[in-house]
Amino acid sequence: MNKNRLEAFSDGVIAIIITIMVLELKVPHGNSIDLLLPLLPVFISYVLSFVYLGIYWNNHHHMLHAVWKVSGGMLWANLHLLFWLSLVPFTTAWMGENHLAEWPVALYGVVLLMAAIAYYILQHLILQEHGKESVLAKVIGKDMKGKLSILFYISAIFCSFVNHWLAILLYTLVALMWLIPDRRIEQAFREQEALNRERS
Amino acid sequence: MNKNRLEAFSDGVIAIIITIMVLELKVPHGNSIDLLLPLLPVFISYVLSFVYLGIYWNNHHHMLHAVWKVSGGMLWANLHLLFWLSLVPFTTAWMGENHLAEWPVALYGVVLLMAAIAYYILQHLILQEHGKESVLAKVIGKDMKGKLSILFYISAIFCSFVNHWLAILLYTLVALMWLIPDRRIEQAFREQEALNRERS
Amino acid sequence: MNKNRLEAFSDGVIAIIITIMVLELKVPHGNSIDLLLPLLPVFISYVLSFVYLGIYWNNHHHMLHAVWKVSGGMLWANLHLLFWLSLVPFTTAWMGENHLAEWPVALYGVVLLMAAIAYYILQHLILQEHGKESVLAKVIGKDMKGKLSILFYISAIFCSFVNHWLAILLYTLVALMWLIPDRRIEQAFREQEALNRERS
Amino acid sequence: MNKNRLEAFSDGVIAIIITIMVLELKVPHGNSIDLLLPLLPVFISYVLSFVYLGIYWNNHHHMLHAVWKVSGGMLWANLHLLFWLSLVPFTTAWMGENHLAEWPVALYGVVLLMAAIAYYILQHLILQEHGKESVLAKVIGKDMKGKLSILFYISAIFCSFVNHWLAILLYTLVALMWLIPDRRIEQAFREQEALNRERS
């Protein structure tokens, strides 16, 4: 019932976060093409964060698709996730403006890590509410990607102080891991739909 | 009928308010971790306001869940509430940038107080429209939390000039009071749903 | 069918316009209460524009409630309205920052006038599509308020150069005229609903 | 099923993009009418981009109207489109602030070109999913407008370095081409609806 509003609110917040990030691409004073070059690290940071927020929106979308009970705890776990995502424009801008320097790159990872943990908590609460035999439980399975992401984020945070490019590489790898379509998820939904049709 | 649009508009405004607040977390010029320290009061203010807006969204959501008649008066009472909430980013930023000084802390409370009064008016109008015997009336009951909040805000405004930390403590206490799930509300809804099922 | 998306998009744009206006309330540097005084004209402008956008949202909401056919022309007439509304934050800020000086006050009126004309065009297109015998046509009637508003805006634009306070007074009067609930509209809807019930 | 959320998210992002562009119309310091004159190229750029985003919203709206299957690929193709559209405020501001100088005008075209390609990819994926015999396929047909737009954008990018006014003219022509209502589309929908009615 109230799932729609939870989705709408999350969509709104993610849409705003994804869009206000572009305000950090400060318009250069002058019309030479050379003025765009110093914006390159800001642009790279923007692309990376855009992809991350796209992934979160996508996964959030898939996870809530199978939800049919919304508890008070879920509402707050969702707000907790949105809180960490709302800090992404800040860390993106700090990283971009400082040409991917160590501390900003580490903080970028910390916020991603916290968002991943917040997502895990939300997922855990949803699973608890829906039971281990639900479609959702089957879809998520052992959630290897989620666990691997957290491991990668922690590694990247430490890497930041050794080689910040390695950290950026790790963030990119996590993003790519999520971008590659998970055939299993779509498969599971299709099986369920086939089952539903048979029953009715 | 038009409830959906009232909800959607409120969600949109609250989502934007909650997100533009983060723009006040101005990106420091430089990449040292020490530059984040002066941002701490801004960050604390942001967290507090994020929680408050989350609470308003949550309560608004619950209150409108049981609404089935929307009057012109309700639309305006709702806009009145959104008006005061829209000032939260301003007071949050003023409070954060001045390290929680007395006047900004007092003004922060004034805006919270006005929002609480606006919420009370909206609630009153909804109850008037739906009758004292509605689920909504039972859920809200004597609205102890609402009345207590207003008392706390007034106290906090006066406290600001004596000890601003005490005021911040009071704001935090009000937030915690609302964060603790209200079992009664969810209980009342469940009872009603059980009743509905019996009837049909 | 696609009415929902037209409403959702309009709600989104109006919600953003109403909220980004508050960004013009620039946080003063310092924590003294005296620093808020120079913000007073900005605040007054903000309140006025907030009310105007609230009125537009409200009227838009009522008008589309009775719409059941959406044409390509209506989509563009709606975007045309949103275009002029999107300029409100600019004129509001210019007026506020210049303590309600003549030219900014006149431009404020020009944008309101253009928005009113855009609204009139949208209304005209909707009526054309739905016929003179529709509920909508009855509700709008002779649209005295709409015509009166346009007259008031034009007067206010000229007044700006004589006495800018008179212009502000006129803008306030138009807003008040719309704020006072139009019993006829709600009445017409109730009658229609009663009719529908009888038929079914 | 999840089409609604795809639409809602796209609407949100486009609504925010269209509205934050107005923030680039920086409020002049002073109240003379002469101060508005230097804003003219910024205003022209704003109008052009507003119309472009309106066209994208409009076309997106029409295209998704006929969609009834949403795949993971479509979600990402849609995000890809939103990414390029999110850069429009940046190129608009750069073009406006530099009085339509050559490089900014060229970059403006590059972003429009990339958005057009992203739209084409999204359209292609949707057609692939729905089959060549679908209403959608008939509506889109040979997509002359889409192909012509891409040709015009490329020409405009090269023109920017010869005569930037010619480039602006080309951008305006493309916008006008899309603004003129496509009777065929509305016709095709009406025929389909008539067919549906006959069948049921």
What does this structure look like?
4 copies of one chain form a homotetramer. Chain A has 200 residues and is mainly alpha-helical. Chain A has 9 helices and no strands. In chain A, helix 1 (3-20) runs antiparallel to helix 2, helix 2 packs parallel to helix 8 and helix 5 runs antiparallel to helix 7 (144-159). The longest helix of chain A has 29 residues, at 102-130. The radius of gyration of chain A is 19 Å and the shape is elongated. The model of chain A has no long low-confidence stretch (mean pLDDT 87).
How many DSSP helices of chain A? 9
Determine the mean pLDDT of chain A.
87
Shape of chain A: elongated
Q: What are the low-pLDDT stretches of chain A, counting only 5+ consecutive residues below 50?
A: none
Strand content of chain A: under 5%
Question: In terms of structural class, how would the helical and strand content of chain A be classed?
Answer: mainly alpha
Query: Largest interface here, residues on each chain?
Result: A-B, 33 and 32 residues
Q: Secondary-structure element sequence of chain A?
A: HHHHHHHHH
The count of DSSP E runs of length 2 or more, i.e. the number of strands of chain A, is 0
Q: Which sheet architecture does the biggest sheet of chain A show? A: none
Straight-line distance between termini of chain A: 23 Å
What's the multimeric state?
A: homotetramer
Radius of gyration from the alpha-carbon trace of chain A, in angstroms: 19 Å
Total domains of chain A, how many?
Answer: 1
What is the percent of helical residues of chain A? over 70%
